[in-house]
Amino acid sequence: MKKVKVCVDVMGGDEEPQVVLDGIDAALAADADIEVIAVGPEELVVPFAEKRDRVEPLVAPQVISMEDDPLKAVMSKRKSSIVVACRAVKKGAADGFFSAGATGAVTAAATAYVTPFRFMEGDERRPVRPCITTAIPNRAGGLTVLCDMGANPDVEPGDMVRFGQMGAAYSRVVCGVARPRVGLLSNGTEDTKGSHFTKSCFAPMKEQVPGFVGNCEGTDILSGSVDVVVSDGFAGNVALKATEGAAKTLMHELKGALMGSLKGKIAALLLKDQLMALKQKFSGDAKGGAILLGLKGVVLIGHGATSVEAVKNGTLATAEAVRAGLVEAVASSIEGLVE
Amino acid sequence: MKKVKVCVDVMGGDEEPQVVLDGIDAALAADADIEVIAVGPEELVVPFAEKRDRVEPLVAPQVISMEDDPLKAVMSKRKSSIVVACRAVKKGAADGFFSAGATGAVTAAATAYVTPFRFMEGDERRPVRPCITTAIPNRAGGLTVLCDMGANPDVEPGDMVRFGQMGAAYSRVVCGVARPRVGLLSNGTEDTKGSHFTKSCFAPMKEQVPGFVGNCEGTDILSGSVDVVVSDGFAGNVALKATEGAAKTLMHELKGALMGSLKGKIAALLLKDQLMALKQKFSGDAKGGAILLGLKGVVLIGHGATSVEAVKNGTLATAEAVRAGLVEAVASSIEGLVE
Fold it and tell me: How far is B310 from chain A (nearest CA, A)?
């Protein structure tokens, strides 16, 4: 396979850095063609790299925590692991970056340092708004791509057009859907449904987004009736978290039903493997985390609780997106691209 | 119990009218203190009423179907069951109305004929925007009230304040929560999160909605951390349908896991009752359907597929809301009420 070099944020996540280091080891073991740049404090990354062939250290003494204000932290902590890693991607020293750190901070740093593509709108040269994108397993056995999941609570119709174009590129090259069907998240499937805002997006999306199939609704996120669901970051975030909340609640209720009686406990024993698989399927992301589309580099953000498995998957998924040519596919999906 | 007279739309729903008639019989059997006004075509409602003590017929020869444009249908089909029933509520001939018909048409007819309360805003006398409200069982064993679920995709901050006030009244008198905690649906729980619109709602809601606890997110719909979730009808509809879609998908996957092996089939036999209860809990609504808050009468809209059970529950829930004094509680929750 193509050799890929991935930056991994050793300080990302809500667990001890050792969890991330173990995750890196697991990723190295799973993919012989990746190299990892471990980004973090000297005392952690230097000894870790010394003992391994395919690991380089990149020293970053500062840490951006989940509690920091994302924008302020990115501006003031220039030597944080997140900022240092984004600059390495920009310079071409790494092919991609995986962090299980704060979504807001990674998004802000990646936008500032990996930088978005630019396009012409009339006479104006404008940057693409990066959108947070995730792929979740649907009932039809495929993956539904959701974008934007929260980077941009307020957007313009042109941004929605680009979310659709970039989301379709992601569905194509990463999820393997030949001709992705792109839906506009709305409060009903009829063409006339929507808020003033989504109604103003309908015509430009119909015209400019390949595979646009019209409005879709909350139930379509997991139904498999569309491959890409486009929304502003506000409604997208609400939809994703409602989905997660419902899945969590059902698993909780199911556990209650199983543990509430002897019959249930016997059933639980019989079903152990299937229940674990079900839990696995609906926790976290099918593709290792949320990806930022619209940037000149692959940046993946681990979602949910950090674990060795999550860091491994995120690191491998970052390499997978690089190998799939995601950044190039996104670039060629944007109309009027200049840079 | 207090005698209550409920209009039931015999032509509502996607099944044969006989399903509704059987549902009425089931409701009459379950509650000795309700009377039903069966609203529909003469050939159905007159013979049905003749054979029953506590049923009156109300003849409505026209039908509004799920395919009709709601507003146009309500204006042109003045003798439809939906319009005729709403006028009966307005006149005081009935205490409430239950329909399993099209949400849009029932909302439009109820707004036009049952009519909303009015309040003073500065020098202006304005009608309350009715909001579609539903209560769903949460993980904490209580009920979360969601409003608005789709009547108003675009609203003003003042509307959101009233949704919060009215939703809290519903939580109090129908769900039995003494001091409902009211959350503003957003893309994060921090005070600074939100779209431009929800940010503009935060301060007025904090000031005017009793029990306001700040922003909540999609996961809070089923977590039980708030009792009332307030949003515009666009985001609310997305959140509700995403929740329903996730629940449906998980039940589907669970069924697959159970039926995929012999062990699973044995487990399914052991768990039969619990699985039915789980399915029951997350299908449809805890309170018989979606209720329209802000109107001078109780109007309930059946949600999901029509069945004898659903019509029975909807009819009983309509009577329950009347007995609980919902309309009066909503009226007294609205600031500046004049009528």
Answer: 21
